[in-house]
Structures are given as structure tokens and as C-alpha cells.
Amino acid sequence: MKMYRMKQWILWVLIVGISIGTYPMVPIFGATDKRKEPDPKAVVYRVYETGTTKAISPQKGDVVDIYLTMKDANLKASDFDKIENPMVAKKKTDSFEVTSSANAELSSEIRDYGNDGIVFQIKFSKLEYTGSDDKLIFDFSYQLDGTKKKELIVSVPNCIEYSRSDYTGTTPKIEVNNISFPGTIKAGDTFTLDFHASSNIKDMVFKNVELDYSNVSSGLETTTILDTKKLPNFKAEGPNKTQLILKAKDTLENDFETVTLKYTYSYRQNGEFINDKSNEIKIKIPVVKNKEEEKEDDMKGVPYIVVERYDYGEQVIAGNEVTMKAVLKNASKQYDVQNIAVVFSTSDGLISKEASNKFFINQLKKGGTYEKELTFLVDKDTATGFQTVNFEISYDYKKDKKRETKTTSESMKIAVKAVKKKKKEESETIAKRTPSVMISKYEYGGKVPAGKTFTLDMTLQNTSKELKIENLIMSLEVAEGLSITSSSNTFYFEQLSAGGTATQTVEMQALPNAKSVSTNVTVNFKYEYVDKKERQSITSSEVIAIPIYQPDRMEFMMSELPEFINVGEETNLSIQYVNKGKSSLYNLSAELKGDLTSTEKLQNLGNVDSGNSGSIDFYAVAQQAGTAKGKIVITYEDDNLETKKVVLPYELQAQEMIQDPSLDPSLDPSFDPNMNQEEEAGKLTKPMKIGLAVLGSLLVIVILTVIVVKRKKAKRLKMLEELEEMEDDN
Q1: 5, 599, 644, 673 — which has fewest CB within 10 A?
Q2: 348: enclosing H helix or E strand
Q3: Given the DSSP bridges, would you call strands 105-114 and 643-655 parallel, antiparallel or unpaired?
Q4: What is the DSSP string of 440-490?
């Protein structure tokens, strides 16, 4: 019996222990829950050549800067502002070798607060790509109590250089090149896909070659009964041209559709006949996907902007210019959008011919569209494939009488065909025997403010190691926004020895009304050289880009604050602003922080054109007596889309409201709420008493005035009588 009770007691102890272990401990002991672990995500990344803003797809050995835009939905802005060094981000993968610091630094370029958390940017500097992987992995943690390190993985695109010749050389394969198809393929289009097929080994002859192209992605379909082709005369020296007719389906949901080419073939190797070998090749075809009638964002009450369609004609040959027509659409059915800022960037093979990489749209009504033409030069060394134009779009809209801001990304693809290069021997011979002038180095002191005079220092170099250059004439042409202040824009050099250098200094000025863009200086060269007793004349040119910016001259001034305010009463904190600069400012917003509260603590005021002014008004309330301290944080973007921040502190004395008992009888200690109406009627209120007192004073003044006047009149009568008596006596 005792043993049974002992077992029963042990069983109850175990049940209670398990219950306590599985039940949340915080509510039991009344402690507050610890801070949630941050959940940061890398939402946007950019890879730049170190020290520049040139976006690249790194190859082995490249040294790059990587910017990561992070978003954390679990962290409040008030917490983030308290931290001077808010994160530790350490590179862990072997794909990048650290050449500066292993830790990332917080970048001030992007820092935004919203209802769904914070958005900020961190930067890795001087990372050398090893070519071993395409991922950047790092530990990430905030220096806040209760947080843990969180490992994040960021994939950096196009890191591993792909080569068609990446094989051992012992296995013959069929390769595909010279791929061609229409530049723009939309839903329902029937189009032709052309390509050449060849062997990866010279003089290899394939037999019994058969092509199966039935394996297409969900957005495509073939147009023939048989989805295979027999190619009996396939030869390695080719080209073996093939043409397929395909059709895009009525619904396209992807940016790309694919055609998988499966070649089956036989060949003879080392005296042995190899049967039924095969390999597959995938061809990616960019399409214009169908835009949904209603997006999930719009169903949630958030408007969205999309690139509805774009067109650039046929496939573009490397080295040529291409003009792309893009149509942006406000796809919302509920909201108009305003203050639309579009910043575009390109992949390495495209060079923008536009004066600026950004443009602005004042407003797009719901369902409205905006057409934009952009011109690009395709680099002559670009390989066959696709080049990308990326759009980063930010815009405002009003929801429930409040202004909201949203950002989104869109992209477009351009199909490019490479130019067949000359034989290596020929190109080397031409380069060797033709001297050329290059600007090996130039300096202008960094970004130039409009209106400033500066010096452009150039170093010219003869690239030939054998031939000297004679009678070199250099002339400069400047684009809009620049002027040459030197006496001439033309300079003469009698000769430039083989491999030699020369320097030239030119005084220039950025015009006061210049726009905030990179302005070009075209340097033209005309020179002669003698090769094998034959004199040749050569012309060439180079372009130097000099960034100009309009200085930010936005001014803010807070109106004089009252010495005291009453608790519970509204007080107007007013800030006057004026844009004295010559360029517009964008996305002006102000936030009230500190002890005072307001029904509208965050205000988005939109854009401020040059010369415009206005005011920012917060109707604030003090909740308790004492010193009320805080600040008004103002942010905006200048013409270069760089975020600026202005902080205006405030300090007020709040006091409890003092109410005069005479204005409220209930505050008088002698007040009897049960007094009958007759007694109330018989009593005089204080204002009535004051009125009667004033009336009595006026009556006294009138009476005294009458008495004084009568006395003076009597005195004058008496004096007249005395004069008359004196005359009678005489």
C-alpha cells in the first residue's frame, strides 16, 4: 500500500512538472516578454565596382562594394534611433575575400520608417570576388538586449563566369549559337526561333542527329504535328541552321519562357562507334507577361505601378543604339498616385544615352499610363543574350486622408546579338601598328557645385610602344551646363613619343543654372604618324563625365514658442520653410517626437519646387504638467535623391489649467446645489455685482462733476456782484 502511494505521488509530481515546463513562464511569474528576435531581410542589393556607382556582375578577381537594403518588420523606429552601431554583419563565405574590414557599416543613404518596421542600408567595402560561389553569407545582429545573431544568405547574381567550353574535351557535344527571335513577344504571338548548331570539337561529324523540341515551358506551344527534326547532314563546320515556329499562349505569367532542345546523336571516337548520346540546351525567351486585372496589393488598398508593356523592335546588334518605349501604368482601381520618381539602371552591356538616370511624373490617375522613351548604346563587346533595364519607382498616394509612400521595382529585357570578331592575329597587328591617344588620367576635384570654377587636369598618353605621334591637336566640346573659361578650347602638341605622356590643364565653370546631372566633356584628337615611310592621319575622341549638382538651400525656421501652455489645450508648433535653391526637393516629411502628442505626428508634404515656401504645423497637446521636451525631425530628398535630415528641438513649460471659480459656481466652497430658485433669484452673481459697482462709480462721477460746475458758477456770480458794488462806490 505504501509503495502504491509512493508511485502515485511520483506520478503527480511528474504531471505537475511537465505542465509547468510546457506552460509559458512569463505569464505565470508576471514578467514582461523579452524583445522579439529581429527578422531582417535583404530586400534589394547592388554590386558596384569599388569606389564608384558603376553596377557590375563581378568576375573572378574583381574588387567590389556591395550595398544591401535591409527591412525589419519587428523593430520600431524609436529603438533603432537609440543605437549608434546597430548591427554586426560579418562576411562568412569564401566567395568573397575581405580586403578592408570584415564588418559592414551602416550607410546613411537609406533609412526610412513606416508602420511595417524600418528600412535601412548597410555596405560592404572592397570585397574581392574569388569566383568560387555566388552567395554572400554573414552573421547579422542588433546590439539590443534579448536579440540573437541571425545568419542571412544573399545571392549575388552572375558571379560565376559561364563558359561554353567548360568541359574535359573528351566528350563531343552539340552547341547552339546565333540565337535569334523577335525583340518583343506578347501573349498570343506566333514567332520564329532561329539558331545555329555545331560541334564543340573541330572536325567532329555527328550521325543520326535528331532534335526534340517538344519540351517547352507552360507559356509556349509548338505549331507542328511532329515536335522532332531529323538532321542527316549535320557537320561540325556548319553552320547547321534550324528554324522553329512557336506560339505564345494567351496567358503569360513569367518574365521568361524556355525551349529545351534535346539533341540525340551518334559519332565515332578512337575507332569505336558511340550510339544514342544526347545533351540538352535551354533557350530563354523574354516575354511580356499578362498584367493581372487586380493585384493583391490593390485589394488591400495599396496602389501599384507596373511597366505595362515595352517595345524596342527586333533583336539588337551589339555596337548599335536601341530606343526602348516603355509604358508605365497605375494599375490601381481605387487611388491616384503623385510625386512619382523613377530611377533606372542597366546591366553592364548597356550604356545610357540619357542626360539623367531618373525622371519624374507629377501624377497618374487610377488606370492612367505614361509613355517614356529611353535610348541606350549596346556595348560592341556584349555577348549574345539579354541585357536588363531595371526601374526603382517611388510614389505617394492618399489613403484615409493620410499621405502614404510606396516603392516598387520593375525590369525590362533587351535581346542582344553579338558581333562576329575579327581574327585575333589581325586585330593585334592593327592595334600594334596604329598609335592612339588616350586620356590615362584626369582630375577635377570631385563633384562640382553649380556656379563653381574648377580645374580639369588631364594626362594624355601615346599607347603605341613603337610609333611616335606628331602634330597632335586636342579640342574640347562641353555639353550644356559647362563652359570653358580658358582663352581657348584647342591645344597643340608638336609630338608625343612612343609610350610618352603630356599634361594639359583647362579652367572650366559649372554654370549657375546647370542641372544636377553628369555633364560630358568630349575631347577630340587629330594627329599624324609615320609608319614604313608613309604618313597617316588619325582622328579620335574620348568623353569625360563631370557630375554637377545644385547645392541644397532649403531653410527651416520654427516660430516663437509660448512661455507656458495649459495641459490638455492644443498648441501650434509652426515651422516656416523656403527652398532658396535652383532645383526641386522631393518627399518632404516631418515627424513630431517627444513629450507632446498630436493627432497627426507624421506629415508628408510632397515636393517643393525652387522658390516655393510654406509651413508645417503640428497642433500638439501636453498630457501632463512639467517641462515638455522633444524634437521635430524633417527629412527630404535633394535633386540627386540623397536623403537630408533636419532636427528642430523644442522645450515648453506645461501647467495645469487654472479655472476661475466665478466662471463655474460649482467651484465656490459656499455653493449650495439645493438652493431654491427664489433664493437664487434674490442673489446677485459676481459679474452682476461688478456691473453694479461700475454703474455706481459712474453716478458718483456725474454728481461730483455737477457740484463742481455749480460751485464755479456761484463763485463767478459773486465776483461780478463785488465788481458792481465797487463801481457804485466810485
Answers
A1: 673
A2: none
A3: unpaired
A4: EEEE--SSEETT-EEEEEEEEEE--SS--EEEEEEEEEE-TTEEE-SS-SE
Beta carbons of 190 and 182 less than 8 angstroms apart: no
**Which DSSP string corresponds to 551-591?**
PP-EEEEEPPPPSEEETTSEEEEEEEEEE-SSS-EEEEEEE
Q: Stretch 553-559: mean pLDDT, rounded?
A: 89
Coil, strand or helix: which one is 677? helix
Distance CA 578, CA 585 (A): 11
**468: helix, coil or strand?**
coil
Q: Which amino acid is at 142?
A: Y
> CA-CA distance, 307 to 371, in Å (whole number)?
10
Question: Which three cell numbers, joined as nine digits, stand for 216?
Answer: 517547352
Q: Which residue has the cell 546591366?
A: 347
CB atoms within 10 A of CB 609: 9
CB 83 within 8 A of CB 104: no
Q: Which of 46, 36, 57 is nearest to 150 (CA)?
A: 36
Per-residue pLDDT tens digits for 571-614: 888 999 999 888 888 889 999 999 888 888 899 988 998 889 99
User: What is the number of residues in the chain?
Assistant: 730
Provide the strand spans (E) within 50-170: 63-72, 87-91, 96-98, 105-114, 117-129, 135-142, 150-155
The CA distance from 112 to 119, in Å, is 5
Backbone angles phi, psi at 273, to 5 degrees: -90, 120
Minimal CA–CA distance to 386: which of 57, 131, 66, 60? 57
Specify the DSSP element, H or E, that contains 686. Answer: helix 686-729
Backbone angles phi, psi at 694, to 5 degrees: -65, -45
One-letter amino acid for residue 537 of the chain: S
Which residue do the cell numbers 568573397 mark? Answer: 96
> What integer pLDDT is reported at residue 145 of this predicted model?
55
Q: What single DSSP character describes residue 712?
A: H
